[in-house]
Amino acid sequence: MPIDPAIAIGAELPVEEFTWTASDVQLYQLALGAGSNPLDTRELRYLDDAKPQVLPTFATVAASFHATEAPKVSFPGIEIDLAKVVHGSQEVTVHQPIPAAGSARTTSQIVEVWDKGKAAVVVREFVTTDLDGNPLWTARSSIFARGEGGFGGERGPSESVELPDRAPDHEVLVPTLPQQALLYRMCGDRNPLHSDPEFAAGAGFPAPILHGLCTYGIVCKAAVDTALDADATRVKGYKARFAGVVYPGETLLVRIWEESGRLLISASVPAREGSPALADVVLTLA
After folding, report:
1. Angle at alpha carbon of residue 98, lines to 190 and 160, rounded to 5°
2. Radius of gyration of the chain (CA)
3. Is residue 112 a contact partner of residue 80, using CB atoms and an 8 Å limit?
4. Distance (Å, rounded) from C-alpha 119 to C-alpha 133?
5. How far from chain centre, in Å, is Cα 209?
6. Which residues make beta-bridge pairs with 269?
7. Most CB atoms closer than 10 Å: which of 34, 73, 135, 196?
8. Lowest mean pLDDT among 8-17, 50-59, 78-87
9. What mean pLDDT is reported for the chain?
10. What's the mean pLDDT in 90-104?
11. CB-hemisphere CA count at 13 Å for 37?
């Protein structure tokens, strides 16, 4: 089925209601590497049994945390084979610190569909409130679908972020585990691209790759720990473009520049000649 922007854009998708617990938050943050030093009190703040501090990136998994099936890319006017899809970009804005446990409601719609020629980009916006209607977070997520362009749509804007022409204020190396993707998939993303070697090979990768949202969360945590004294409540917004793949077990180099009201960040894989992992990364301070 070809993409039909006239049907897709503005299409309202089913409302989702969901709950999460402190244990869900702990598992998510363990899947990002929290607790790697179990004697570090700053690390243990992410893993408190009653009230763990919550990284804003938890918003990306909260609604689907208990999913056990691979996702489908099936929306009004859009039907795409999962093997053709990679995550394009992600943005989260939190309207208050995310509670350690709660119930919420998310409404979402397709807001943009771009024709990149050989590929298509589909942008979805999510608005999440508690069950009384108080805003919790807003998110925007794009997917990049290879081979699905050429339908005659607009190409879309470029939103690149220029990094300062100076040395970063912070640099940190962040190792990932060989089983990192297998752990992260327990947070609700069961896409076989991250666990099944045959499926990954069919999608053009030599091995299963780390979830883009796992890299996204790992880099956010590294920035919070390094530049914000491990205080996640200081984050208002966080966005990034997925610029390349990361394989479980690789080490990330995270570089951070401090600016007024925000951090600019890059993440790359030094072992592959600095191959980019995340680009156009901006963390906005509360």
Report:
1. 70
2. 18
3. no
4. 37
5. 14
6. 275
7. 34
8. 78-87
9. 93
10. 98
11. 8
CB 104 within 8 A of CB 30: no
| Residue partners of 64: CB distance under 8 A and separation at least 6 | 71, 188, 189
Q: What is the pTM of this model?
A: 0.92
The rounded distance, in Å, linking the Cα atoms of 66 and 164 is 40
The residues annotated as belonging to the active site are: 189, 194
Type of residue at 257: W
Per the CB < 8 A criterion, the answer to whether 173 and 260 are in contact is: no
DSSP, collapsed to helix, strand or coil, labels residue 135 as strand
- 74 membership: H or E segment, kind and range: strand 73-75
Percentage of the chain modeled with pLDDT above 90: 77
How many residues does the structure list for the chain?
A: 286
CA proximity to 32, closest of 250, 217, 177, 191: 217
Spatial CB neighbours of 25, under 8 Å, sequence gap ≥ 6: 52, 54, 58, 100, 101
